[in-house]
UniProtKB/TrEMBL annotation:
<keyword id="KW-0560">Oxidoreductase</keyword>
<dbReference type="GO" id="GO:0005886">
    <property type="term" value="C:plasma membrane"/>
</dbReference>
<feature type="transmembrane region" description="Helical">
    <location>
        <begin position="6"/>
        <end position="29"/>
    </location>
</feature>
<keyword id="KW-1003">Cell membrane</keyword>
<feature type="transmembrane region" description="Helical">
    <location>
        <begin position="126"/>
        <end position="144"/>
    </location>
</feature>
<dbReference type="InterPro" id="IPR005265">
    <property type="entry name" value="HemJ-like"/>
</dbReference>
<feature type="binding site" description="axial binding residue">
    <location>
        <position position="91"/>
    </location>
    <ligand>
        <name>heme</name>
    </ligand>
</feature>
<keyword id="KW-0349">Heme</keyword>
<dbReference type="GO" id="GO:0070818">
    <property type="term" value="F:protoporphyrinogen oxidase activity"/>
</dbReference>
<comment type="similarity">
    <text>Belongs to the HemJ family.</text>
</comment>
<feature type="binding site" description="axial binding residue">
    <location>
        <position position="10"/>
    </location>
    <ligand>
        <name>heme</name>
    </ligand>
</feature>
<keyword id="KW-1133">Transmembrane helix</keyword>
<feature type="transmembrane region" description="Helical">
    <location>
        <begin position="88"/>
        <end position="105"/>
    </location>
</feature>
<keyword id="KW-0472">Membrane</keyword>
<dbReference type="GO" id="GO:0046872">
    <property type="term" value="F:metal ion binding"/>
</dbReference>
<protein>
    <recommendedName>
        <fullName>Protoporphyrinogen IX oxidase</fullName>
        <ecNumber>1.3.99.-</ecNumber>
    </recommendedName>
</protein>
<dbReference type="Pfam" id="PF03653">
    <property type="entry name" value="UPF0093"/>
</dbReference>
Length: 199
């Protein structure tokens, strides 16, 4: 019975942790892009994002991570035979990578607050895809265990990475084109007003 309690709370912790990680880096995107705003909007937005990032990291993401890891330890204590299986070693390696990512996000958050981070919104969008890849690998290993079709899983993960990279590039292109259209429209309007004043 203890195994099922640990498993239930482990899954709850995973959902909370990943929700926090996904949203945290999305806030980093907005925080970085706030630099493009004129004052006083820039300072107001950066201060607001800083507050949101700090609360999200300490109130949601960190507790989610702690619950996930604590319940995973409980699962391994109640079922130590998993530690003898190869799929678990690979899964734990991915979890370690996720923990590194988690604490790296905390470091970025502190650098953003200090005004020492020069990352662009585009770079943060790419960073935001890392936990998706890790989540996919971890879930596939947890479900299939030793019977994971590695060729198919590898191709799926590679395909997802390519799709995410293409999506980020397409979105960047769309934003650039939208900005160019907006600039052209404002210049046309300015020319129209200047023409009316001259007449």
């Amino acid at each position: 019975m203890a195994y099922y309690w640990f498993k239930a709370f482990h899954l709850i912790g995973v959902v909370v942790w990943f929700a926090g990680l996904f949203y945290l880096v999305r806030l980093f995107v907005y925080h970085a892009e706030a630099s493009q705003q004129p004052e006083p909007a820039q300072t107001i937005l950066k201060n607001q994002y800083q507050i949101m990032e700090k609360r999200l990291y300490h109130i949601i993401t960190m507790p989610g991570m702690v619950v996930t890891v604590a319940m995973a330890i409980g699962l391994l204590v109640t079922s130590p035979e998993f530690l003898k299986q190869g799929w678990m070693h690979i899964k734990l390696a991915f979890v370690v990578a996720l923990l590194v990512y988690h604490f790296y996000c905390g470091r970025i958050m502190r650098k953003l607050a200090a005004g020492e981070c020069n990352w662009t919104g585009q770079q943060f969008r790419a960073l935001n895809e890392a936990p998706t890849v890790l989540l996919m690998a971890i879930v596939l290993l947890a479900v299939f265990k030793n019977s994971l079709p590695t060729n198919l899983a590898g191709l799926s993960i590679l395909g997802m990475i390519i799709l995410m990279a293409a999506s980020i590039q397409l979105y960047a292109k769309k934003r650039r084109l939208d900005a160019e259209k907006q600039l052209a429209a404002s210049q046309a309007k300015e020319n129209e007003i200047t023409g009316q004043v001259t007449v």
